Amino acid sequence: MDHHSHIDVSKVIDVDKWVRAEEASTGSREKVTLIEPSTDRHYILKFPKKRREHQVWSELLASYIAGDLLGWDVQHTSIAQQGNRHGNLLRYVYKPESETFTEHERETFTEGLRFCTQADPDFDVDKGTRHTLPLIIKVCDDLLKKGLKRDDFMDFWARGLALDTLISNTDRHAENWALIEGPEGVRVAPLYDNGLSLGCGLDKVGLDRAFDDAGQLNAAHLERQRRNGRHNLRLDKPDNPASTRPAQSASRSTHHPAADASPLPKAGGASRGAFYPAGARWRLRIRRRA
Is 86 part of any domain? Predict the structure, then answer.
């Protein structure tokens, strides 16, 4: 079996005997923090939402696409079982307070939400309507005082927006990016929480709309999806909903030279099986820039 650096598909990991850590969690998906007994490594076991069981696969594939195919920094993902339930086992992206790391090695993990609310006292925590590109740039300016490198921060967003456009991820809100501070300075956390993507919420009705009777992609439906797609990060004014609409505009404004990717096969040239999973089999066509 091929070795992958950012995912583990060799087996479903049984975590019934792992230690549970009492750490507060954020986000809408049910999750629990676990410690692997043999290594003292920290993980998050995250369960898919109801009627979005395919999130287990979309989270795994997002890490594979970003990490193994594109070579970008992304959270390591595998599949685990606790009791009779399955979910994503997500390795911590920083060194937490534990017996494994000394006081001089430990790091802190701070979600972008804190920096956004500091930069904008009127930041809308619930809806995130003020999560805009100008605010991100202001946050960057503020964080330069902490030692963050501007190029690293903007490079993260270029990659993040490119990945989100590629996999149709709409969940890059202010709690889904973060900074890590430690003895070696400040850095942006790897891409994480990429599971609300790759059509994980599609059911049979959605598939029937996306494909014609011959099993080919419906070009008109695909165009509507492209036109109506929205990213969580707005390009300009908070009161302008249209500023989130063209995902491709976001990718153009921050195009990363490392990859040129097409999220879907062209209409008329793909079967249903190539677009959506048959069990755990997903296919994506990714074209690297030479």
Answer: yes
CATH number of the domain enclosing 52: 3.30.200.120
Overall residue count recorded for the chain in this entry? 290
Query: Is 225 a member of any domain?
Result: no
12: containing domain: 7-91
Structural tokens at position 202? 């599609």
CA distance 65 to 258: 13
Q: What is the predicted pLDDT for the residue at 27?
A: 59
Into how many domains does the chain fold? 1
Q: Are 14 and 80 in contact (CB under 8 A)?
A: yes
Give the burial string for 110-128 (b: 16+ CB within 10 Å, else e). Answer: ebbbebbeebbeebeeeeb
Low-confidence ranges of the chain (pLDDT < 70): 1-2, 23-29, 98-102, 238-290
- Tokens representing 230? 């929205």
Residue 57: inside a domain, yes or no?
yes
Query: 207-249, pLDDT tens digit by residue?
Result: 888 888 888 888 888 888 777 777 888 887 766 655 554 344 3
Contacts of 93 (CB under 8 A, 6+ apart): 75, 109, 180, 189, 190, 192
Residue matched to tokens 């605010």 = 135
Q: What is the DSSP string of 181-227?
A: EETTEEEEPPB----S-TTTT--HHHHHHHB-TTS-B-HHHHHHHHH
Q: Is residue 87 in some structural domain? A: yes
